[in-house]
TrEMBL record:
One of its GO terms (biological process) is Gram-negative-bacterium-type cell outer membrane assembly. The gene is lptE. This is LPS-assembly lipoprotein LptE. PANTHER family: LPS-ASSEMBLY LIPOPROTEIN LPTE (PTHR38098:SF1). InterPro entries: LPS_assembly_LptE (IPR007485). The keyword Secreted does not apply. Component of the lipopolysaccharide transport and assembly complex. Interacts with LptD.
Length: 167
């Protein structure tokens, strides 16, 4: 009886949410001034640049060539690092902390340039018995970290635009 009531409640909730037009929307927080911008990077084909471009497009930002009067997002530098967090009894690495730091700048349409940064840290268990799985898992973690850093930069870019408007 309780299971059927729970199932009925879940179905009713899903139906109500889909019927009222409530949906997750990407890019609704991005102001109109930043919906069209130019993206620059010293290496436009690096994994970080690709992740940033994908996140911008996922948030309905139109990327155009750099011209006067259009905001420009530039990735100035990104650094990756890993440090040993713990060791096994025999002195081998057991766990690592993976770090990604991205330095970028946003030049607004009025010519003002503002630096923004994003830092992402993750722990990674370094299992020496599964070398191939370890490598694949590490790549997945790095890709996820780049996506998270790109989302952080977009959030900071939106917050910066709102701060500039309030001045």
């Amino acid at each position: 009886m309780i299971k059927s009531i729970k199932a009925l409640f879940i179905v009713a909730s899903i139906t109500a949410l889909s019927a009222c037009g409530w949906h997750f929307q990407n890019g609704t927080l991005i102001p109109q001034e930043l919906r069209t911008l130019a993206f620059e990077s010293s290496d436009p084909y690096s994994e970080m640049s690709v992740a940033m471009r994908n996140q911008l497009q996922a948030n309905n930002v139109q990327l155009v060539n750099s011209t006067q009067g259009i905001p420009v997002l530039r990735i100035n530098k990104f650094r990756t690092n890993d440090e040993v967090a713990s060791v096994f009894k025999r002195g081998r690495e057991a766990e690592k902390v993976l770090m990604l730091e991205v330095e970028a700048s946003i030049r607004l349409a009025n010519g003002e340039s503002h630096p923004i940064t994003a830092k992402v840290n993750r722990t990674f268990f370094d299992n020496s018995r599964a070398a191939l799985a370890k490598s694949a898992e590490r790549d997945v973690i790095w890709n996820d970290m780049r996506e998270q850093a790109a989302r952080q930069l977009i959030t900071k870019m939106v917050a910066l635009e709102k701060q500039v408007k309030n001045k």
